[in-house]
Amino acid sequence: MTNPATGPVAAAIAARLTADLAPSHLDVINDSAHHAGHMGDDGSGESHFTVIVESPAFVGLSRVQRQRLINTALSDLLQTSIHALAIKARAPGE
């Protein structure tokens, strides 16, 4: 993983995506500061994220299928801790 965001939610995102997708590249970027005071900002400083994931698990999958894999890995966090998640998912070599 490169450019890691800090904090327990960011760490949980990284751990789950690593366990489920064995990424060759993973960035977890905390975008929450850009949304302070907006709807969905819970004051924790960890509510809005971007993930950039490169994984062999994505080979042959559509963009929607890739996003579904990520959403499944993070399903409970999306219900409790993550208000917004931007996803950039690619297979190696793309």
In brief:
This protein is an alpha+beta fold and 94 residues long. It is 33% helix and 21% strand.
Structure report:
Helix content is 33%, strand content 21%. It is of the alpha+beta class. The chain has helices at residues 8-21, 63-73, 75-80, and strands at 25-30, 48-54, 84-90. The mean pLDDT is 87.
What features would you highlight for this structure?
alpha+beta; about 90 residues; three-stranded mixed β-sheet
Give start-end ranges of low-pLDDT stretches.
none
Distance between the amino and carboxyl termini: 18 Å
Q: Give me the Rg, rounded.
A: 13 Å
The structure class reads alpha+beta
Number of strands: 3
Strand order of the largest sheet: 1-2-3
Q: Could you give a short account of the major beta sheet? A: 3 strands, mixed
The average pLDDT score comes to 87
Order of helices and strands: HEEHHE
Shape: globular
Give the helix level as a range of percent: 25-40%
Q: Beta-strand percentage?
A: 15-25%
Topology:
Elements: H1 8-21, E1 25-30, E2 48-54, H2 63-73, H3 75-80, E3 84-90
Parallel strand pairs: 2-3
Antiparallel strand pairs: 1-2
